[in-house]
Amino acid sequence: MRHRSLASAASASAPPPQMPPLLLVLFHFHWRHHAARRLSSTTACLHPPPLQHPGASASLLLKLQDHIARGHLSRARHLFDQIPSPDVRTYNDLIRAYSSSPTAAADGLHLYRRMLRHRVAPNNYTFPFTLKACSALADLHCGRAIHRHAIHAGLHADLFVSTALLDMYVKCACLPDAAHIFATMPARDLVAWNAMLAGYAHHGMYHHALAHFHSMQMQAQARLRPNASTLVALLPLLAQQGALAQGTSVHAYCIRACLHRNRKLTDGVLLGTALLDMYAKCGSLVYARRVFDAMPTRNEVTWSALIGGFVLCSRMTQAFLLFKGMLAQGLCFLSPTSIASALRACAALDDLRMGEQLHALLAKSGVHADLTAGNSLLSMYAKAGLIDQAIALFDEMAVKDTVSYSALVSGNVQNGRAEEAFLVFKKMQACNVEPDAATMVSLIPACSHLAALQHGRCSHGSVIIRGLASQTSICNALIDMYAKCGRIDLSRQVFNMMPSRDIVSWNTMIAGYGIHGLGKEATALFLEMNNQGFPPDGVTFICLLSACSHSGLVMEGKHWFHVMGRRYGLTPRMEHYICMVDLLSRGGFLDEAYEFIQSMPLRADVRVWVALLGACRVYKNIDLGKRVSRMIQELGPEGTGNFVLLSNIYSAAGRFDEAAEVRIIQKVQGFNKSPGCSWIEINGSLHAFVGGDQSHPQSPEIYRELDNILVGIKKLGYQPDTSFVLQDLEEEEKEKALIYHSEKLAIAYGILSLSEDKTIFVTKNLRVCGDCHTVIKHISLVRRRAIIVRDANRFHHFKNGQCSCGDFW
DNA sequence: CTAGGGTTAG
What we know:
The protein is 66% helix and 3% strand. It is mainly alpha-helical and 809 residues long. Strands 2-1-3-4-5-6 form a 6-stranded mixed β-sheet, covered by helices on one side. A hairpin with a 2-residue loop joins strand 5 and strand 6. The termini are far apart. The N terminus is likely disordered. The structure holds one DNA strand of 10 nucleotides.
């Protein structure tokens, strides 16, 4: 407090220092320049006064100044070259002009080199300009050279020079060097503090940045009151951390210090934008909107920050309205960034038509080549199911980065094209584009989808090598992958070892137990989740209920359903009712399930009835099945599965005419049944089979093996259950159609390829049929093999003639 | 100052 400068002395009657009024702030602003000038001029005295220009007329020099002032750099250069031996000031003027335009920065450095060649000594004005050019070019090598020159000239401690050095190291991503400069500067002004803060902030060094800001506040001098630049660097950090309380107090400070109405117009826009962005990122859209409305001037960044904020908070419809409002103001605010946000809204709203209009807008406004917007367009098409469009767009893109590739990887996975996803990943590596966490989070589900454990383990290894293995989202994907690849033990290992878990981690692990029929373990984990104070969400209960359902834990399932509303205050959604119907009907309580549907507060949609229909099929309850299928027809079947189920019901009842009719309706309406397909991974490569498939190179052996097995198990009393065949065929023909179901072929191939101690793991895209289920049980007995089959629904562990699902498949 | 790709349930 003792070294109060003239600024604070002048404002002795000012309010306490934490509440600086406008005058104080502005005054400090001027004062900084004076202080800097003073400092510079003392060091400048060490150097000889500027030379005269022999041969250069005063009018030439004036003209040169004029060109520089008007930004006519080439004309200025023309004049400059006519001066036989320019002095340091003339060099400085032109270098300064070059360095303030990023495209001319290289010319500025050339001129500097020429200056040295001509033995003109640079002074305290030269270095900041040349360093600025280095910053613009991110030319660290040159920056370090100039640093040495400055030391040589004894000017490195000058306030302007050292601040420029600091800034150069920040822009060249050398934070330790920047911090060293900062620490050793004999004097630091607000600009230096701000530069250092911005450096930490831009490099995501949250703790360093906050510590820096705190020590900045600890500086007693009133001249270190944060200005707009300080807060513009600080606010994104608070936003990222969701620190609403701190952000709000920054806002309050801005108002007290009148920074939001800064005389520099850009400061006001930047600060307002940073503030509204902070509010939006902290989930406080009302305040974001209020800041926005109060801003006297806005730019395109302001608009896209607000629109992006609404998208971030999943307020897609409102985001869209804002976007339209922006367009209504004219096209001056339109930017690729806001289009990218609007495209995200389209993708989430499933509004393909609007997405296509945005595509057109993007093309028209000439920002088609923008990488960000292109990537979100690509993703929008993929999410809408138009994977071919997405691929075409990807091929058209002149520049592709990690995000483009990741979007295509996940687009393929979302459209059920796991193998293509791997191909894209390979291509990405061939093109030397580095995968990051998001890429891997997209790729790992492809392994889950294929149940390709070897691929999954490779991905796990790759994630470890890249140092991503401790990230929560990566671990979540790994838990899911191991569970779906039949290694629930490894899922649990990943779960146990991960440093921090989120709700997805718990849900995924519970779901993993569920598909393995480990209802007790699922319940235990749910209880542990409670003990650790993790509040379950709606998805948790879907996972838990379906786990009970797959394990035949009907009573427990009912219990949790009631607890969900009563203890956790969660309102059941349609998905929960589906789980309950599934639970009851799978357990054989068909009538109770029917009554349950009648008593639902929501109007049951098709999916609810389909859950019941599946059980009618299994329990061969044709009466109820008829009623249910009538409901389904009324509601209109969605997707293919329902047609197949319905047709199956009729087939099983021997009513093939009606079964055929359903098939015809299906064809007419354009739903194609996806063919049953099974696959097995042997030594890291996948072998896929469809029913009656003979395309595999080892087909003859496979069929021989399968026939041998069938002869063997028929002796044990196995009778093919021909009710599972869909077409209307003669009994003998039906039997043949059954024999060569894809899962049987894959298992036969597994027996041939794997030694006896190895578990055979087969995956099927649809559900395993009842006949195959019986046959596989027999195989596990006569061939003494452990067999795991993952179907569209769950896992079946076959061993010694038994199945883990207790035949409630 | 803004912004693109990502994990769970059926």
